[in-house]
């Protein structure tokens, strides 16, 4: 069963990745659920917010269980599932916002890049670490250069290092900051970064 919580409030669709004991790590069925939450809608919301349960992570990326016993055919299906989910975020017919409340890694970072806006807690970290285990970022990592420049994007994609958001904020990757635990509060808790 997908670990995704969806609720509609005042015309906004809130999509929460909800596996906090595993840093909201994602399984293929979670990616399908996110895509459906953004595409199978009537009426359309005014906007959607993607966030993670708890204050430790938006998501640590793909759950390691997703990689067990992969064959070439199942690996292709997994990549297609990632592509479809991230594509659903990028092409949503309404504004999307990613609220990064902790670690935002791998496919989760690609989902954040696909959103129209990104806000972050100042303690968050982002990165594409899957290259360190031989899995390249193959979906929306190409969007990274639009936000941090080509040189920094290549560094992030090729090294797999993790970066504190405070290092990337001056490059324009994030639209605003929020204090941990204050995401649902009024905008006076955020300052444009």
Helix-strand layout with pairing:
Layout: E1 4-9, E2 12-17, H1 28-39, E3 47-52, E4 57-59, H2 72-90, E5 96-100, E6 103-105, H3 107-114, E7 117-121, E8 125-127, H4 144-148, H5 150-159, E9 162-164, H6 165-168, E10 176-178, E11 190-192
Parallel strand pairs: 2-3, 3-5, 4-6, 5-7, 6-8, 7-10
Antiparallel strand pairs: 1-2, 8-9, 10-11
Largest pleated sheet: 7 strands, mixed
Shape: globular
Output the radius of gyration.
16 Å
**What fraction, in percent, of the residue positions are helical?**
25-40%
Q: CATH first level: which class?
A: Alpha Beta
Our estimate of the beta-strand percent is 15-25%
> Helical element count?
6
CATH superfamily annotation = 2-enoyl-CoA Hydratase, Chain A, domain 1
Q: Report the CATH architecture.
A: Alpha-Beta Complex
What does this structure look like?
The chain is of the alpha/beta class and 193 residues long. Helices cover 30% and strands 24% of the residues. A hairpin with a 2-residue loop joins strand 1 and strand 2 (12-17). Helix 1 packs parallel to helix 2 (72-90) and helix 2 (72-90) packs parallel to helix 3 (107-114). The radius of gyration is 16 Å and the shape is globular. Residues 186-193 have low confidence and may be disordered.
Give a nutshell description of this structure.
By secondary structure, the protein is of the alpha/beta class. Helix content is 30%, strand content 24%. Strand 2, helix 1 (28-39) and strand 3 form a beta-alpha-beta unit.
């Amino acid at each position: 069963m997908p670990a995704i919580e969806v609720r509609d409030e005042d015309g906004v669709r809130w999509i929460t990745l909800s596996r906090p004991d595993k840093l909201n790590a994602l399984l293929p069925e979670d990616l399908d659920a996110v895509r459906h939450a953004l595409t199978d809608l009537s009426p359309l919301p005014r906007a959607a917010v993607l966030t993670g349960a708890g204050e430790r992570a938006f998501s640590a990326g793909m759950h390691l269980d997703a990689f067990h016993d992969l064959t070439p055919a199942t690996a292709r299906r997994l990549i297609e599932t990632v592509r479809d989910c991230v594509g659903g975020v990028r092409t949503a017919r309404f504004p999307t916002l990613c609220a990064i409340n902790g670690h935002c890694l791998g496919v989760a970072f690609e989902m954040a890049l696909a959103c129209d806006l990104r806000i972050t807690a100042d303690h968050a970290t982002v990165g594409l670490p899957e290259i360190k285990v031989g899995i390249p970022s193959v979906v929306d990592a190409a969007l990274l250069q639009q936000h941090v420049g080509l040189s920094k994007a290549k560094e992030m994609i090729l090294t797999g290092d993790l970066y504190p958001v405070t290092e990337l904020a001056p490059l324009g990757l994030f639209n605003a900051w929020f204090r941990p635990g204050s995401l649902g509060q009024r905008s006076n808790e955020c300052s444009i970064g």
